[in-house]
Each structure stands twice: as C-alpha cells, then as structure tokens.
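Researcher: Go.
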Amino acid sequence: MRLTTKGRYAVTAMLDLALHADKGPVALADISERQGISLSYLEQLFAKLRRNELVTSIRGPGGGYRLSRSSQAIHVAQVIDAVNESVDATRCHGKTGCQQGDTCLTHHLWCDLSKQIHTFLSGISLADLVAQREVRDVATRQEERVNNQKQSEQKLVERIDASTL
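Model: Structure:
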C-alpha cells in the first residue's frame, strides 16, 4: 500500500490550514515555510482543492486560503480524493491485471483492504486531527521554529545595517 507525496502533502497542508483557520486567510507561503513544502507544489495542490470546493481563495493584501466549510465537515479521504490520489493496496491499481493480465489470487483481499482504508480515512475529519494534543504540539513547535528563524534573520539584517552606517 502506498500513499504518494501528493496525498500526504495535501492532507498536511489542509491540516495546517485548519490549525490556523482562526487567524483569517492563510497564505500558501506560510504553509510552505511551516511544512517544508515547495510553494509551487502547494499552488498546484490548492488549485485542485479549490476546484473540489474544499478551500476558497481570498485575493488581495492579507489574502490567502480558507477552508470552504468547517473542519468537522472535511474528511481526510475527501482531501486525498480531491488531488486525484488513491490509497491502493493492489499492484494492478484495482484493474485486475495483476498476474500476466489476469486477476491474481489475492486481488480481492487487497481491493477490500483499499476500501477499508478509504472508509477509515472517511471517518477522520480535520477537526478530529486538530483536536489531538500531539498534532497541536507539533504545530506549536513548527510555529516556534519559524518565529525563531525570522528573529535570527531580523537580527542579521540589523547587524548588516549597523555595520554599513
């Protein structure tokens, strides 16, 4: 079974958005910085998320993205589906050509597992994840790292400015 980077990054970015939903629109640059996902990749993912009506974009200064509905109403499986990703445990991608064009002995087992995983992820909302203490702890650590990095950069700029006077 595999979930590609696209699916993982989409869920991570949506969870970041849900964690920061109370602060207004969230810029993709901020998600990029906190999560270590390239901005151009996020732009591609969010275009798909917007087309699937999971997020809305806000233009202009102070703009960014918001969840299109409550975090309780957005489930992990919807996010994965929105970016055209699937959680598939079969080698044939569910097309029954697993053994020289025929169905392999365990094809139905792996198809059933794929369905169970999708059902499991359909039962987990972004709000469920936000409510987990471990998730909030990681988010706090990420915020502190970004803030410390910005403070260090600001001090460096101040030293450079002072030395050029």
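Model: The two ends are 60 Å apart (CA to CA).
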